[in-house]
Prior knowledge:
Helix content: 10-25%
Distance between the termini: 21 Å
Largest sheet: 4 strands, mixed
Mean pLDDT: 89
Structural class: alpha/beta
Strand content: 25-35%
CATH topology: Hypothetical Protein Aq_1857, Chain: A
Amino acid sequence: MGEPAVVPRVVATPAALAAIGHLVAERGPLMFFQSGGCCDGSLPMCFEDGEFRVGDRDVLLGTLGSSPFYIDGRQYEVWKHTQLILDVGDGEPEGFSLPAADGKHFVIRSRVFDPEELATLADR
């Protein structure tokens, strides 16, 4: 019997993947940063690649489509027991994030990892 599959820390809904594909075709490479600041709440921020500088303490959670998804290191410590799910919601984006589409913005949903999933993530 092989090793259990490692569950991804971040995933995207089909709507979010379609929005990413459209934005990449329109603007080029993208990156995401899960914000935890006071000014922009805790929304996922979407930027053209290179438009946002990732810090030494920030954590790469994974790649959605071809776009890396980072989280602030302090936020990661609070949320490391959850899977982040990138989705699309109605309304314009807040802060400096690119829109998911006209009248749409990216949102985060989450779910708590079960004990078996957490065990596969223990060494990551």
